[in-house]
């Protein structure tokens, strides 16, 4: 049977909304000038869901321009965890199946990964821009020998406008990823908080370059 990509994308967006509204149970694990990172056990798989929250010094449109999951988007240029990003199939104007590859990381302990996700993009009534994603299978994306297949469980970002502050954006992001392969849990637990801090730091540089 064909996968209901639109339905899966919608369910991932629902999950994002639940995470956003549910402040309970998060434990802080890293804080920088740009982001505070917290985590709690995932209900989706045997790992953690991570939450990043920070203020980016740019308008929601500029932040979205840098992070939106589109072909030939800016993300591959600034996000050190995204090597390549391709749209495999456009399901609708707002939903697409995408393949992301990541470079080796963490002093090469983590080898290159590939992820196949259905991604939804939406603008909410309050001006918030949302991207939500979750893992799927697609006939055009069989596992590749050079990559370990990882799995994203419902994850995504909210670009939230700040009333009266047009040049600042609250960026709330959720990451929950099974990296696959045989990685020690200690490696996984130290990789994500560092990686999220790097994401916010590199994004801040990218929006400054966009405005320059």
TrEMBL record:
Protein name per the record: STAR5 protein
Keyword Cell inner membrane: no
GO MF annotation terms: cholesterol binding; cholesterol transfer activity
Domain START: 1-212
Function as written in the Swiss-Prot or TrEMBL entry: May be involved in the intracellular transport of sterols or other lipids. May bind cholesterol or other sterols.
Transport found in the keyword field: yes
InterPro entries linked to this entry: StARD5/6 (IPR043556), START-like_dom_sf (IPR023393), START_lipid-bd_dom (IPR002913)
Organism this protein belongs to: Nyctibius grandis
Keywords: Lipid transport, Lipid-binding, Transport
Coiled-coil segments on the chain, per record: none
GO annotation terms (biological process): cholesterol import
Pfam short name (any one): START
